[in-house]
Amino acid sequence: MKYGKSDKRVCYDAGKARERNEIGEKIKELRRSEKMSLKEFTEKLEQRGVITSVSAVSKWELGQTLPNAYQLLAVFDCFGIADPSAFFAGTNLLNEEGLRKAADYREDLIASGRYSTDISLRQPDIVYIRMPVSLVPASAGTGDILDEEMFEYRTFPADEVPDGADFAVRVDGDSMSPEYEDGQIVWVRRAASLLPGEEGLFILNGNGYIKQYREREPADAAAYTDSHGSLHPQPVLVSYNDAYAPIVVGVNDSFRICGKILSR
């Protein structure tokens, strides 16, 4: 079917809608109408299976990022919105056809079992805890990895946090691949010493590392012999990726064991 000039309709412009931050502004409007703080809103989202942070939700409202489809459905539920058209009312985001498709999508999710309008069906027994996560990833070239000001608190399902964990840190780089991938969060228990073969978090000459700890007999025995005549082993930090050579810690290096990496 061909359209004449009089049949042309105005198409939805996603770029302009995003420039106006229509989704973010609507979320902020609903939150404020409920006199709900960002922290309270984040907690409500967590009850609905959306694990996020205050800063992440703030980015939604500012239009710096957008919630995905499942997160947006959780937003609807936080405010008791059963019909997507109630959320988009008063915005230029969706025309009548778009609203219909959004409603159909919601019904498809419900039918598939991936989303339920009954909150009692949404993993009611999950317990969440807040844990510190270092803002500085390991291997990021800084000794500030354990500075208290360099941590943020995030919420995790309690069963995903190993017993004894004190904090988490992100892996930077691929030196521990395939066991630990770039960007992955690992859990750490503070410790000043490790047994050979254990994985740890270290600071060597101001740089943070996640490596396997090993020891070797030092080539310069005198340098590793203390005043009591005891010979101490020389630390070696080993990567799982064969492309990275082991790091031998020298007697004049500034070296610190920060903690033990806990199993996931």
What does this structure look like?
- The protein has 2 domains: about 10-120, 434 Repressor (Amino-terminal Domain) (Orthogonal Bundle), CATH 1.10.260; about 130-260, Umud Fragment, subunit A.
- A hairpin with an 8-residue loop joins strand 7 (about 235-240) and strand 8 (about 245-250).
- The protein has helices at about 15-20, 20-35, 40-45, 55-60, 70-80, 85-90, 95-110; strands at about 130-135, 150-155, 165-170, 185-190, 200-205, 205-215, 235-240, 245-250, 255-260.
- The strands form 2 sheets. The chain has a 7-stranded antiparallel sheet, with no helix packed on it. It has a two-stranded antiparallel ribbon with strand order 1-2.
- The protein is built from 7 helices and 9 strands.
- Mean pLDDT is about 80; it is low at about 1-5.
- The chain has about 260 residues and is α+β, with helices and mostly antiparallel strands.
- Helix content is about 25%, strand content about 20%.
